[in-house]
Amino acid sequence: MNVFLTGATGYIGSRVLLALSGAGHSVTALVRDPSRVRGGEARLVTGDMRDRDLVRGLAAEADAVIATATPGDASSAEADRDFVGAVLDGLRPGATLVRTGGIWVHGPGADLTEETPLAPPALVAWREEIDNRALTAPGIRSLLVEPGVVHGYGAGIPALVFAGAQVGDPAALQLIGPGTQHWATVHVDDLADLYVATLTTGATGERFLAVSGDSPSVTALGEVASRRLGLDGRVVAEDPAGTVARLGGFGEALLMDQQASGEKARRVFDWKPSRPTLLEAFAAGEYDPA
């Protein structure tokens, strides 16, 4: 299949490129800096996801679009809205669009599913309108992948756990928030496998929580990190107001208690997450500071 991929130099997209190449797909990757592409076979096109004419033309050439790119700043909503509009203008009838959302839009919950009513924090509240527009677009097969907290290779949000302040005497690692909240997680390579699976299976308009079923508490993560840092597992909670003051809207999202199994993706795609869990990665030293 001829796949137009965005985000090929990013944390998720770079692993998706490798997975697509490994599965025998032909990939056209839109990148701002071709020198940052690491591995995978692709035709590289230099440009930006905000270039509507370029995006429309690349979408018109493709059998499928997989979108993993985002500015990750205040311009994200506008950039994604423009990108989706250009892709929908360009895609041929019957083509596939796979976009990246996020589990945060479902709000807190001990057993989140794709049917859980949306309750997004302010940081991602803009997603709903754009997600709905893409999922209901006529004439194409459109799906939404909603990753949890992505981990692997010492990168991503989990690295923040190790960056917590060391406070007290004896020193203890400061958690992100109270520590009682859980994070629904997924290894980046398992996530990449799921994107590849969506190309051939799954009905239009469907969303899929991309989580492994492992939802550790922040306290459990902090205790392992504390031991790796030589603090004997000592941790201290952070007042939620302090977390928000320190991290803003991002901190508000990290305070949510989210647990999910990802059962739908397993059932529909026969997806089998198999990489180490986040706790296992922490214990193995994958996230130890350099």
Automatic annotation (TrEMBL):
GO cellular component term, pick one: cytoplasm
Cited SUPFAM superfamilies: NAD(P)-binding Rossmann-fold domains
Coiled coil: none
Domain NAD(P)-binding: 7-82
UniProt GO molecular function: aldehyde dehydrogenase (NAD+) activity
Domain of life from the UniProt record: Bacteria
Name this protein carries in UniProt: Nucleoside-diphosphate-sugar epimerase
Organism listed in the record: Paractinoplanes abujensis
